[in-house]
Every structure is written in C-alpha cells, then in structure tokens.
Specification:
Helix content: 40-55%
Number of strands: 6
Order of helices and strands: EHHHHHHHEEEEHHE
Distance between the termini: 31 Å
Length: 279
C-alpha cells in the first residue's frame, strides 16, 4: 500500500479528442438528436458542452481573458455549482443555432489547441482551477488536466451510450478516469467517523480497475493505492459501475445493488454519494 501518485494525461488528450471527432463524424442526423443520460441534454448538447469547455480553457488560461463574473458572490460549493450550471445552460441554449457539422469543425480546431496548451504546462505548478469535487481550492496542473480528461472521457462515453457506439473502456482510456475519480473519496468520507487507523478498501474490477484504500487519520481520511492489511470494510464493484456512479449515472439505490460489501456495511454508504463532477 502506498500513497496515490500524480496522474499524467496531457499527452493522451490529443488521442481521446481524435476518438471524439471520429465518433461525431460517423453520426447520422438522427443520432445527433438522441437523448442521453446527461439530464435533458441531447447528443448535440454534449458535443456543444465539450466545445464550451475548450473555449473557456483557451480563453481564460491561454489568452488570459477576464473570467465571467458571477451575478452574486460565491460563498459555498452549492453557489459554485449553481453558477456553473447557469453558464452551461446559457451556452446550450445559444448553441442550438449551430449545426452538427459546424460543431465538429469548431471542435477540430479547439481540441488540438487545448492539447497543445496542456502539454505546455508544468504539471506541478498551481493550476488555473482547483479540483473542487476533491475538496481542493488549489490544485496542481496535473490534477486539473486529469480532471479535464475525465470530463472529455465521460461525456464522450455518454454519447457512445446514446448512439450504441463501442465504449472506450480499455485500461488505456478508463484507468486514468477512475484513478482521478477516487480522489473524491476522502472529502466524501470527511463526516464519516471512525477510529484512527480504520481501513476501507475499494476494489474496482475490470481491465481498467484497481484497488484503493482509505485510512482514517485523527482529523481526516487519506487515500492509498493497494490492499490494506486490516480492512474493516471491503467494497467491490466493476469499472462500469464506478464511472457511472461518480458521474450521476446511477441512483443510490441502483448503485447499492451493484456493490459487494464485506465487513461494516455502514462504511460503504458514503461511497453511494460520491461524485467526481460538479453537481
């Protein structure tokens, strides 16, 4: 068992972006207007959201344009989520005027430029955005980039689900997503009381999976990679369940049926509320 390590995916951005373009170019007219698991968003809306992510990143980070100020102060995590949700809704409404073909053309430009930007960053310098769902106000570039990779992967997977395209679920594509997502566990367990030294193991099965362990310290939980020696709760679930659970793709009740829990089942409950997206 050892502490979790940085995740380096800047060089993978270009490849996953090419997979997205290949997917979108192969869609029929009907495919673009199919519903997805992303709330009310259609396939075309997810593609538009991915374009928005690229544009914001290039504008605010590469070009250092002033960020859009909130209408009211952001005093809590809920305020931040509300602000981002409104930004997303405004963008999706406006992009209803953009054709699928033009969305592809725009993405072919912005995706390559975002890849170049991420490859240029020092992974250990402070990031433009902290990874809030992991409880961080300030993050290193490697984590910010890994978070952006999880967005690119899981939104593309939502499109793939909607149109019946093969999943990108090999270890190459999905393991970095899961490795990033489990960084949300310590903050989601922060109100779970246990004696110092208590160990919980999370076993994600499948080619892209792994084993992670939370260890209770005096005031918080610390995440490790590997198997603990004295586990009081062992939670096993497959890689498909893992990414869907942490991106609002499964309800608590649905997810509960997909877990195998050994030991103190009460300690498995916080997992069911763990999200690695802003929600």
């Amino acid at each position: 068992m050892k502490p979790v390590e940085p995740i380096f995916v800047a060089d993978l951005f270009g490849e996953i972006h090419e997979e997205l373009l290949k997917l979108l170019r192969g869609l029929s007219h009907e495919d673009w207007y199919k519903p997805t698991v992303a709330g009310s968003w259609l396939v075309r809306d997810i593609a538009a959201h991915l374009l928005d992510s690229d544009i914001r990143r290039l504008s605010f980070q590469r070009d250092q344009a002033p960020m859009v100020p909130p209408d009211k102060p952001i005093a809590s995590y809920a305020d931040l989520v509300g602000f981002l949700n409104q930004l997303n809704a405004d963008w999706i409404k406006a992009t209803k005027r953009i054709s699928p073909q033009l969305l592809i053309e725009f993405l072919s430009v912005t995706g390559a430029q975002v890849t170049t930007l991420f490859q240029s960053l020092d992974p250990f310098e402070p990031a433009l955005f902290g990874v809030a769902w992991a409880g961080e106000e300030t993050s290193s570039n490697w984590f910010d980039v890994a978070r952006e990779y999880t967005e690119k992967w899981h939104h593309q997977q939502q499109i793939r689900d909607a149109v019946g395209a093969p999943a990108l679920d090999s270890r190459k594509w999905l393991h970095p997503v899961l490795d990033a997502f489990v960084r949300a566990l310590p903050v989601n367990y922060e109100n779970t009381q246990a004696e110092a030294g208590t160990q919980l193991s999370f076993v994600i099965t499948g080619e892209a999976g792994g084993i992670w362990t939370l260890v209770r310290r005096i005031d918080d939980w610390q995440l490790f990679v590997g198997v603990a020696d004295k586990v009081v709760c062992r939670i096993e679930f497959d890689q498909d369940t893992a990414w869907r659970l942490m991106t609002k793709g499964l309800s608590r009740d649905q997810a509960r049926t997909k877990l195998t829990v050994q030991g103190d089942a009460v300690l498995a409950e916080p997992l069911l509320g763990t999200l690695a997206v802003m929600a």
